[in-house]
Amino acid sequence: MISKFLDLGIAENVAKAIDEMGWEEPSPIQEAAIPAGLKGYDLIAQAQTGTGKTGTFGSVILSTIPSGQKVPSAIVLEPTRELAVQVSEELGKMSDFSGHVCVPIYGGASIERQVDELEEGVDIIAGTPGRVKDMIEREYLDLSRIKVIVMDESDRMLDMGFIDDIEFIFKQCPADRQMLMFSATMPEDIKRLATDYMKKPKEINVSQDEVVLDLIKEYYISVGRRNKSWALTRILDIDEPKALIFCQTIKMVDILEQRLKEHHYKVEALHGDMPQKKRERVVDDFKEGETDLLIATDVAARGLDIDDISYVINYDMPDDIHTYIHRIGRTGRAGREGTAVSFVTSEEEYLIREFELRTGMKIEKRDVPEAEEGSKDTIRKVTDYDQLSDPFGMVMFEVGLGKADGIGKVKLADYIMRAGRIIDAAIGKIKIGEESSTVEVHKDFGNRMLMDVPKMRYRGKKVSVKVLERD
């Protein structure tokens, strides 16, 4: 397949390395951006994580700058330490036959070690803005010979407040250099940067959402907060995926990690409060198959680039489309199919409709997988009254009393209040049937309905009570 990359104009030694890495054919962003980049144009490319961006700017850099230099000829700016390391590793693989040296520069690690690596000679820097600026100010890093600047995940870097550091770095580079900007979205700040620092840039946009979602089967499961762990362990036990699990908060990541470890799952957590060395070990263990499950926050998982993730599970549903796409784009890579499952509470179901409209893709409703007959759930399902209630907090119950028992609405309400110690204001609509009846009761009294009401017989009859699912 090397010829397909050579056709884009990539240097033969770079294309040979790409072939060794097992890349079969160029992605849409690579087909659109590499030829223009090799001609020296500045580029603004709109592309999501997982679409082949590193291969795009890596091919341009490695095909246009010399190797074996003392100071760098190219710099790639990344929003996180993890992404700087991963990009450096990827460019290292792409340099197997060209001999280019890429050094990752990031905070939270020994600055002395990074300085030693720079002094040995470097062709490309992959770094976070804060540490790169620090190295420049300490006069450890010389950007006077930069020929190519790459600003990756541009919108994320601006969201994280790196704008001043980025502009400082740009001003340390020669005026006559090429700039490649990659971003999932194009906010006004990025357009301003392009105006201020780029020369007649070519804009490239390759239906980015479809590229990410093509190989991903998207599902959602309607489940309340109290039963998310039950639903998760059912999926893990039955489908046995290599899964990346997203939570909204660091606290929830830690809670879920502890809960799963108590049940002997091979799981690790990843979030910003962890020491850098531990974060690197966790990512390496997940890459190498030492752990099956990685629970992460959005910030910690930015730039995580692992090809064999079979499932992305949104344990907590994101509330915006860009985060959703960034998350599920971690699966369905390298030509493999992937699955994305979102746990959605009743209050969040509107997000499914919104995301479907925004992406043009169907997110199918899926039931929690059925356990094998006779097997026990790892985590027991509980009654979640928040999920079962309507917007007014009322839950529907079926009571095993009806017209055949000579009961009407008033007598049934009176029986429920006495048997369950339930106040009158907590009882809503009652519908009397022949053998059984339905009653609305406020969720605050749900346990009393299920546990206490059946303890009192009605005219000597044992009464059954069960909760009904919401329509």
Overview in brief:
The chain is built from 20 helices and 18 strands. It has 471 residues and is α/β, with parallel strands linked by helices. Strand 16 (427-432) and strand 17 (437-442) form a beta hairpin.
Protein model, in words:
The protein is α/β, with parallel strands linked by helices and 471 residues long. The chain has three domains: 2-206, P-loop containing nucleotide triphosphate hydrolases (Rossmann fold, 3-Layer(aba) Sandwich); 210-365, Rossmann fold; 385-467, RRM (RNA recognition motif) domain (Alpha-Beta Plaits), CATH 3.30.70. The chain is 39% helix and 18% strand. The protein contains 20 helices and 18 strands. It has helices at 2-6, 12-20, 28-38, 53-64, 81-94, 111-119, 129-137, 154-159, 163-172, 188-197, 208-213, 228-239, 250-262, 276-287, 298-301, 321-328, 349-359, 385-388, 409-420, 446-451; strands spanning 43-46, 74-77, 102-105, 124-127, 148-151, 178-183, 202-205, 216-222, 243-246, 267-270, 293-296, 311-314, 338-344, 364-365, 394-399, 427-432, 437-442, 465-467. A seven-stranded parallel β-sheet has the order 3-4-2-5-6-1-7, with helices on both faces. It has a seven-stranded parallel β-sheet with strand order 10-11-9-12-13-8-14, with helices on both faces. The chain has a four-stranded antiparallel β-sheet with strand order 16-17-15-18. Helix 3 packs parallel to helix 4 (53-64), helix 4 crosses helix 5 and helix 7 packs across helix 9. It is elongated, with a radius of gyration of 28 Å. 42% of the residues are buried. The model is unreliable at 207-211 (pLDDT under 50).
